[in-house]
Amino acid sequence: MINVSIIGSGNVAGHLVSAFAKSDAVQLVEVFSRRNSVDFTLPENASLVHDLDLLQDADLYIIAVTDGAVAQISEALPFKNRLVAHTSGTMPLEILHENNRKAVFYPLQTFSKTKAVNFLDIPICLEAQFPADFQLLERTARAISDKTYAINSAQRKALHVAAVFANNFTNHLYGIADEICREHQMPFEILKPLIAETAAKVMQLSPDEAQTGPAKRNDLKTIAAHEAFLSDYKKDIYHILTESIQNHGKKL
Amino acid sequence: MINVSIIGSGNVAGHLVSAFAKSDAVQLVEVFSRRNSVDFTLPENASLVHDLDLLQDADLYIIAVTDGAVAQISEALPFKNRLVAHTSGTMPLEILHENNRKAVFYPLQTFSKTKAVNFLDIPICLEAQFPADFQLLERTARAISDKTYAINSAQRKALHVAAVFANNFTNHLYGIADEICREHQMPFEILKPLIAETAAKVMQLSPDEAQTGPAKRNDLKTIAAHEAFLSDYKKDIYHILTESIQNHGKKL
């Protein structure tokens, strides 16, 4: 049994707590929160602490706080030479304080409070200073997910940028499509099967193989008609993405 | 029983043929193809014709050819005052020749030869000159799909642009994310659960509610780090989409 404590009370902390609560291989010891209550349910044997000095022994401390608070929290830990991991996609391993053995436990997923996720499908990106720590990290991750990857800090930085394209920017394109629908009295519902199929396609084909549309087939007449139809920032985005597909679509 | 003939032998024609083959409400009479063979299987009672002059009587002729060929094919039809629909997202109803009663039967989906689709989930956008024709069109569409919409030509034009954002451009962002992964020796697999969840989220939440990331939370430090990390066209796209989320993310 691996004893894990979680430091933080946000979205990622909450999802980790509920994932560990379902696992037989991990015992959740405590959750640290500055606040008196948390938005998620703690498993029976785990306690909530408000004072870092009261943290009990654990095999692994997972810091799940906002990126900017990781360094400070890791420095404030009142113990030495224990295994401490952060969950940030953007922070390097080195951001953690020298007092403890450093690691990263980064679940690559978009978490929101209002939507449950199946942790088994979530890739967990792992990094540690020492091989023995990496093994413990991997056993911990395998307790909640089928997908674990050894990803170093340079790779994780790249991965986070890739995730911004695949998640944040993609969602913004959905938002633009939604806006165009609303401007013409059509429900966003009408696009949902297309959105689902677009994502489903790249589960089987590479994005290059899956690419279709006016830019891919260099249909200049349709492109010109679309650009004439659009205005403002939607037109600019249409233009730059069309150009990118035309220039780089084959290379991708 | 509605008698339908399909004119064309491409992707859309093939998917329509296999959808109608499964329906009890529609009888597929014939498929017209310029070529001697087609890439898809014809149902037992349907025949393949190569000469427009040999086309038999049908309640509805669906022209499923490339956008540029719609006008010409509709003009070449050797009969008058029958119901003829095209399947194009970009062409107006009026592109069809005056000889026959005009309609549009536009399935809003991305079709590829290598991936089967479930037609029941595909929205079919319908338009007709006359109410009685619209009713027949709707009965035909309902025979293969649970989702039918009355969409006029102006709306369909907007919808096609929205679909370019939700499908073609989204897929290109997947391609950029794939490229970033490969540049840093990471498999595209690692992003697939995120891509699936990003699409799944907007089935329940609006894109505005689902939006996360550095641009949405105005995390200028991360944005600057990402822009310094990227180069070339990927940097330009990062910049314009970040700016768009910052300026218009709330409005969307």
UniProtKB/TrEMBL annotation, chains A, B:
Q: Start and end of every DUF2520 domain?
A: 122-244
Q: Which domain of life is it from?
A: Bacteria
Coiled-coil annotated spans? none
Question: SUPFAM superfamilies in the record, alphabetically?
Answer: 6-phosphogluconate dehydrogenase C-terminal domain-like, NAD(P)-binding Rossmann-fold domains
Task: Supply the InterPro entries for this chain.
Answer: 6-PGluconate_DH-like_C_sf (IPR008927), DUF2520 (IPR018931), NAD(P)-bd_dom_sf (IPR036291), TM1727-like_C_sf (IPR037108)
What Pfam families has UniProt attached to this entry? Answer: DUF2520
Query: Signal peptide: which range, if any?
Result: none
Q: Which PANTHER family match?
A: CONSERVED HYPOTHETICAL ALANINE AND LEUCINE RICH PROTEIN
The entry's protein name is DUF2520 domain-containing protein
- Organism (species): Flavobacterium magnum
